[in-house]
Design brief:
The structure holds 2 protein chains of 2 kinds. By secondary structure, chain A is an alpha+beta fold. Chain A contains 20 helices and 14 strands. In chain A, 45% of the residues lie in helices and 12% in strands. In chain A, the strands form 4 sheets. Chain A has a 6-stranded mixed sheet with strand order 1-3-2-4-14-5, sandwiched between helices. In chain A, strand 8 and strand 9 form a beta hairpin. In chain A, helix 10 packs parallel to helix 11, helix 11 runs parallel beside helix 19 and helix 19 runs antiparallel to helix 20. Chain A is globular. The relative contact order of chain A is 0.14. Chain B has a single domain, classed as MetI-like fold (Orthogonal Bundle), CATH 1.10.3720. Chain B contains 14 helices and no strands. The radius of gyration of chain B is 26 Å and the shape is flat. The chains are: A alpha+beta, B mainly alpha. Chains A and B meet through helix 1, helix 5, helix 6, helix 19 and helix 20 of A and helix 1, helix 3 and helix 5 of B.
Chain lengths: 475, 312
């Protein structure tokens, strides 16, 4: 019988070890196993990770922007500290960070967030207090609104971004001269002064055979000039209704090229002539699948259609990088001017995980990415035009002429636009309420609901989503 | 002496039996940690207003449950789920039944059952993400293959055709998802039903044939009553799976799409409050989870009773 007991104990032991090993793998590899893609020198992130951790010569970065891979590589080159950068898709990022940090994981050391995620992260205590490391000493070196976004409700600095993201209108100078007789950014800005004027501008362009926008959502970054929630009450300002009317009119009056943002024809419109996807093939708001990826198929499918050239795109400052990659032969023919309101979109805010055991090293990395002028200058050059948040670097580059934009001094422009951004209008509710509003606009413009029905559904949605948290006064 | 020997043997058997506890211990430990604890923790959370797990909240008792039961979007989501499941189960079981009848009919003598079985089951092996992408592409309303085929057929007869936005129109999105679900699952039901039919003794069929029973009589009087347990199993598992429907509608229909409200299922509703940025309300999501659980439990019990009564 003894051998039976021995075999039983052995089997149970093996089973326990298997289960233990499963748990162990999950713990040690949580940074790698579930996350999207890993970069940097984290190839052997298993046992080696623990070893280097003890010596403080390794940092694990979880990010949703590829930029930090480059920052990590540069930091590693300059300091010799191993940086393992894990890029996670934005939609998965909050869940992954929550799961790891609520489980008390010591890694990642560096976490990031986009503005709409930050308040929840602050409340959950995920970000360490940067003031403990002397962040206050750097106040005034970063553009105001970025510094403010990185503070929690008590004014404690939790994160800093290396970039500013004010929005602007990117327009074709050649079309501007042809239709309006001028390509001066100040004059063109007047054509986008308000939604009513934009519709008139759109009609003028259409009469000349152009289309004002590729999609009808180009003004979204400017539509947030009032807060969605004020003192716990839903606030649907007149400008929100005006924005809805604008989208509906642009769509129903055939004033755009009917592409969807981020779809292939939308990008193609940056480079020149595109088909107007009207009548049988005009698009809906939703375009989760890009069926346009095959250019040959696209050309074949749209052969014989009416074509046009698109006048403008509404994008934040990081749109410079998008345009850089897609303008093709129209390089040099672009300009940037102000939109109907100040706006901004996105931005990656870097902070230190409260659970990190290498917080001093992590602070050094945060400073390297955000407060180091050499890094800022390198990033401006390396990214070919991204807009940093370090004021000294922006000042140093404010006279830089960008040849894609006919020599326009974009850094000076973005600095001006950033001054107008009022971060107090941003709330944690913006994403969900914005989606519900987008849903209402989509329903009205495609004729699936009347405006009254769609707005009533919008109110219902907000009331249901934030019951007891947001008061909804129906108008 | 005999008593002592018996006592020793009993003690040995008891010790031997006690080894059983050691064998089941790993499972029980894992089950307690990964099943029982989360279930109890979720129950506790459902009585709180915790927004994000790990953050502070207070006990609100049944407020979350009242909110779930009075929220029209929850009931709308439940209705959507039932509608999609309803269309899905009719098509799924209907097709599986049809195929089962064809393959089990001795007169047809269909060959290659094992090959057909594999082919029909294949859609079930494809990841839902791939299926969602595949159909979103095929059903794209501008250049989707499906619309192009219909367009060409119309064109052939000299008629014009306006492409249908299968997954972007509230009128068609739910049915579209249901049809895709049926395509994914009919092979599974077919295999179950065939297993049930093959378990029936051939003597019954032969006896019925000798007595001159027709195809429909055999089906109605022999096949159907004898595969009732399998049918019950398929129906209950399909219902439980159907009420937990999430992946396909979630992946295929964007939140800003006006069709979203017509395909939002109860689990998508739960996901919104459990995980989505800006709307995470863990306490409320836990209550939603329990309400869904209770609904599934109730419907399953009712279904079981109805089937059992018929069997009696």
């Amino acid at each position: 019988m003894n051998w039976k007991k021995a075999v039983s104990v052995m089997l149970i032991g093996v089973m326990t070890m298997t289960l233990g090993a499963c748990g162990g793998t999950s713990d040690a590899g949580s940074g790698n196993a579930d996350a999207g893609s890993s970069a940097g020198s984290g190839a052997d992130a298993g046992a080696a990770g623990t070893e280097t951790a003890a010596s403080g010569e390794k940092l694990v970065v979880w990010t949703l922007a590829d930029d930090l891979v480059d920052f990590g590589d540069r930091y590693q080159e300059q300091t010799g500290v191993e940086v393992e950068t894990v890029v996670i898709a934005p939609e998965d990022y909050p869940t992954k960070v929550q799961t790891a940090l609520l489980g008390g994981e010591k890694e990642p050391d560096i976490i990031v967030g986009e503005p709409q995620m930050l308040e929840d992260f602050y409340d959950a205590g995920f970000f360490a207090n940067l003031d403990d490391f002397g962040a206050k000493d750097y106040e005034g070196q970063i553009v105001d609104y970025v510094w403010e976004v990185g503070q929690d409700s008590e004014g404690i600095q939790r994160a800093i971004s290396y970039q500013i993201t004010p929005a602007g209108i990117y327009y074709r100078r050649d079309i501007a001269k042809d239709v309006f007789g001028t390509d001066d950014p100040d004059e063109i800005g007047k054509l986008f002064a308000d939604y009513g004027t934009i519709l008139k501008t759109a009609q003028t362009l259409k009469d000349k055979g152009y289309r004002i926008f590729s999609s009808d959502a180009e003004m979204q970054y400017f539509s947030g000039d009032s807060a969605w929630v004020v003192d716990g009450t839903l606030n649907v300002s007149q400008s929100r209704y005006d924005y809805m009317d604008l989208c509906i009119a642009l769509y129903q009056d055939d004033l755009t090229a009917y592409a969807n943002q981020w779809s292939t024809p939308w990008y193609q419109a940056m480079a020149g002539t595109v088909p107007i996807l009207t009548e049988e093939v005009q698009s809906y708001a939703d375009d989760s699948v890009d069926v346009w990826a095959d250019e040959a198929a696209f050309a074949e499918a749209t052969a014989g259609m009416e074509t046009t050239e698109v006048f403008a795109f509404g994008l934040p400052s990081w749109g410079v990088l998008t345009m850089r990659d897609h303008v093709g032969d129209t390089s040099g023919l672009w300009g940037v001017c102000a939109g109907p309101a100040y706006g901004f979109g996105g931005g990656t805010y870097i902070g230190i995980s409260s659970y990190s055991e290498r917080q001093e090293q992590a602070w050094d990395f945060v400073k390297f990415c955000t407060l180091n002028e050499d890094t800022a200058n390198w990033w401006i050059e390396y990214s070919e035009g991204d807009t940093v948040s370090l004021i000294s670097a922006l000042e140093a580059h404010k006279d830089d002429a960008n040849e894609v934009y006919g020599g326009e001094k974009l850094y000076a422009f973005w600095m001006d636009q950033a001054k107008g951004i009022d971060y107090s209008k941003v709330t944690r509710y913006d994403k969900a309420i914005g989606d519900a509003w987008g849903n209402a606009i989509s329903a009205v413009k495609t004729g699936q609901s009347t405006k009254e029905e769609a707005i009533a559904t919008f109110y219902d949605t907000v009331e249901s989503t934030y019951a007891g948290e947001i008061t909804v006064n129906r108008e | 002496m005999a008593k002592t020997a018996t006592a020793a043997r009993t003690s040995k058997i008891e010790r031997y039996n006690r080894m059983g506890y050691v064998f089941v211990a790993p499972f029980v430990v894992v089950f307690l940690i990964f099943n029982v604890y989360p279930v109890l923790r979720t129950l506790y959370l459902s009585f709180t207003n915790v927004k994000l797990v790990g953050t502070k909240g207070s006990i609100v008792w049944f407020d979350n449950y009242v909110r779930v039961l009075t929220d029209k979007f929850f009931w709308n989501a439940l209705l959507n789920t039932v509608k999609i499941w309803g269309v899905n189960i009719v098509l799924q079981l209907g097709l599986a039944f049809l195929l089962m009848m064809v393959f089990s009919d001795v007169k047809y003598k269909m060959r290659g059952l094992h090959i057909f079985r594999i082919v029909y089951y294949l859609p079930n092996l494809i990841a839902a993400t791939s299926v969602a992408f595949l159909f979103a592409t095929l059903l794209d309303w501008r250049y989707g293959t499906f619309n192009q085929i219909i367009y060409n057929i119309y064109h052939l007869f000299g008629k014009s055709y306006t492409p249908v936005n299968w997954i972007g129109d509230p009128a068609t999105a739910g049915v579209t998802v249901a049809v895709i679900q049926s395509w994914m699952w009919f092979g599974n039901s077919f295999i179950m039903l065939m297993a049930g039919v093959q378990g029936i003794s051939r003597d019954y069929f032969e006896a019925a044939a000798i007595d001159g029973a027709g195809r429909w009589t055999v089906f109605g009087k022999i096949t159907l009553p004898l595969i009732r347990p399998i049918l019950l199993y398929v129906a209950i598992t399909s219902l439980i799976g159907g009420l937990q429907m999430f992946d396909l509608p979630f992946l295929m229909i964007n939140k800003t799409n006006s069709a979203y409200n017509s395909v939002q299922t109860v689990v998508m509703y739960l996901y919104k409050f459990g995980f989505e940025t800006g709307t995470t309300q863990t306490g409320y999501a836990s209550a939603v989870a329990y309400v869904i659980f209770l609904i599934i439990l109730t419907v399953s019990v009712v279904q079981l009773k109805v089937f059992n009564r018929k069997e009696d």
